[in-house]
Amino acid sequence: MRLKIHRSTGRVPFGFPAVAGWIAGTAAFLCIPAFVQAEETSLAAPAQEAAPQEAVPDVRVFIMQMQAQITPERIRTFVMPAAGHVNNWLPDRDREQKGAIIATVNEEDMELKRKELEIQILKDKTAKRDEIVGLRKQLEEINFYSGLTPEEKRWHDKKNPSDKEAVQSLKEKISLAEKELELIDIKPRRDFEKEEENYVLRMPFDGRLQYQFTLPADEAQAVYLEPSTPIATVCDDSAYYITVSISNPDLTRLDPATLRVDIPLASGGSMAGVFSHKRVEKNPSTGGNILAYFFKLPPAQHDAAHGMIGSNCTARLYYVPNTPVILLDKMALASCPAAKTSSSWQELLEAVHPEYELILEGESQLIARKK
Questions:
Q1: What is the reported pTM?
Q2: Tens of pLDDT along 81-112?
């Protein structure tokens, strides 16, 4: 039987004394001990015998079941940027190195865009060079006019400014145009490369590759796909994690190194992870924030984990003490006389062992430590 405590009030649901009284009678009939400790060491009855011995038990205390997902170190899905054909996909390949081309989209269209870009860059460079030539000619004319004698200037048919400000302005325009000429192809090429990333798909990291469309028997055959259709998913398989969301403040205040999770497998075994890190992430369902805990799996379980990516799993969360604690059996504890007048597990623990404080409530046990 599990007695829930409302954490906001520190109280168990209505009827706790009656339930505790029933448990007390049943426990007395069955001779259930009041407390249990790790390694099956019987704890003393609270009122008559000595207090339990505090130790670091080598046990896992089950807390709850929760929804979980298997996540790789990194994952990315490529989608169709526009309607078109997919070419150059790799048959019979499930793993590739960073930078490898895994597919191309609308290859002929992108090649045409590349040629048009080169032509436009050539036009822009030619126009900028002509601009520089014109500015230099103006500067030469000013310098020539400045070198004429007053008599020669009087007979000159052009009125050219000869002041220093005009000369300086022309020099600055020439310098600016020369710099623009050097940079004239950088931005267009960079913009094209960014666009090309959506059409020439490359592995962003070493990892596993999974195409999201049916590969034809003929490797040279292009495959037509609609816009936003997934093309391929790539995973960084250097690490895999069991990921769970924990919002209970009684759990988030614990040292995360004391938490463990495992996922039962259909084969009869389980995948078990140890805490690696946690971070705040966006909840794709609600748009709010969640605190995600990542529990790293051993390399021997990577293959099994990869096959479970994207599936909803049920994980079991455990608490593994790393400091001296006592473990108290909840059913046995509820059979104590003090349970009849206690409205919460915390009150009951204070009555039975006032020198201890409650750390965590498991499904069938309380974990406590000295104050």
A1: 0.67
A2: 999 999 998 877 788 999 999 999 999 999 99
